[in-house]
Amino acid sequence: MPLTKDSRLPSPAPEALALSERLLQRMRHESRATGNWLSFHRYMELALYAPGLGYYAAGSHKLGAAGDFVTAPEISPLFGDCMARQCAQVLDALGGGEILEFGAGTGRLAAQVLDTLAGMDALPDRYLILETSPDLRERQQAALSTLPRALSSRVRWLDAMPEPAGFRGVMLANEVLDAMPVELFVWRKDGVLRRGVRVSASGLEWADRPADARLARQVRSLYQGVDESWGEGYLSEFNPGLAPWLAAVSGAMAAGVLLLVDYGYPRREYYSAERRQGTLIAHYRHRMLEHPLLWPGLMDITANVDFSAVAEAGAAADLSLLGYTSQAWFLFGTGLEAAFQARCSEDLKTQLTLASQVRRLTLPGEMGERFQVMALGRGVEMPLMGFALQDLSHRL
């Protein structure tokens, strides 16, 4: 049956609903060639990135209090302080270089990192931003133009990955992998099903089809790697774009480190028998929804990251695993306590605000364990400070 709106959700504005309807019409038109059916991977791709219509390609407010979700840089400048310290260590080891941020959101992380590095006298040659969303690029440009000229002059926006072997420095990907389109699958004794979306006159609904041989092999490989019985109807997902993306990153990197921050698990935890409904969620007005079909183009859609798959794809792309840990341990390793003290003043309100931010960034029930940090790299031999206190690579 088509999905219906939860009456507790705030309704979108009429112009937003009209945009969603235009995207639905595009999906309906495209699906006619396949029996009014789209794979979920294609649905997610259109819902997020269809030019002028997808969530990240249209002009809606996405991040912050007025949007649908917040990220660590929006929560506290302490996150950027710690990321900057890790960048400084790598840039020092390389004798200088650049920083490239993928999907820079509102530009707040870029501003935090540049400001902190300026105070350390460790600025990169350039701060590059690869942003696919025209709306977010405009917001970043407006925000970063307010920085001192010595900092804003170093920022450049890219339309594509740097030229082959043309990059030396640090690449930052904060909550990037979770926004890549995923394939949904259903495990059954008589064969693997590929979950998709039926586009009918009345709207959208789930629809499953038998998986092709390639998809079935990929799912069976996941099943064999977890040593657990999934049971009939087990539903989950995987990211087919991960390996090609890391191959492109590797191709651009002469020497440096890729820092990945995202919510996720090692494979055995990701595909445990208990997690039988997968990890797919939608974000709308700071609410997490389990049904991502309601208003295509108006909700963020995400899935957790299989960090074992990230490490494997990195190795296949000739990138070394340099560390894997929780966000809490990474922040402590990169000097969170010192960053907190540096920003504290005699004002009690400021101290309480920063203390609250630290709790959100580090407590297990908040972002501390839910978010993971991984470093992949080439030509960097020294141990990275972010993984010095605890390295969980053995869990991969």
List keywords for this structure.
14 helices; single chain; 396 residues; globular; alpha/beta
In words, what does this structure look like?
The chain has 396 residues and is of the alpha/beta class. 36% of the residues lie in helices and 23% in strands. It has helices at residues 14-31, 40-49, 72-75, 77-94, 108-119, 134-144, 149-152, 213-224, 242-252, 267-270, 307-316, 327-333, 336-343, 348-362, and strands spanning 37-39, 98-102, 127-130, 155-158, 167-174, 183-188, 191-200, 203-210, 234-238, 253-265, 281-284, 287-289, 300-302, 305-306, 320-326, 371-378. Strands 2, 3, 4, 5, 10, 14, 15 and 16 form an 8-stranded mixed beta sheet that branches. Strands 1, 6, 7, 8 and 9 form a 5-stranded antiparallel beta sheet that branches. Helix 9 packs across helix 11.
Q: How many strand segments?
A: 16
Residue runs with pLDDT of under 50 for 5 or more positions: 1-5
Strand content: 15-25%
What's the mean pLDDT score? 93
The radius of gyration computed from the alpha-carbon positions, rounded to a whole number of angstroms, is: 21 Å
Overall 3D geometry? globular
What is the overall number of helices? 14
Following the backbone from N to C, one meets helices and strands in this order, namely HEHHHEHEHHEEEEEHEHEHEEEEHEHHHE
Output the structural class.
alpha/beta
Largest sheet: 8 strands, mixed
Question: Fraction of residues in helices?
Answer: 25-40%
Whole-Å distance between the termini? 39 Å
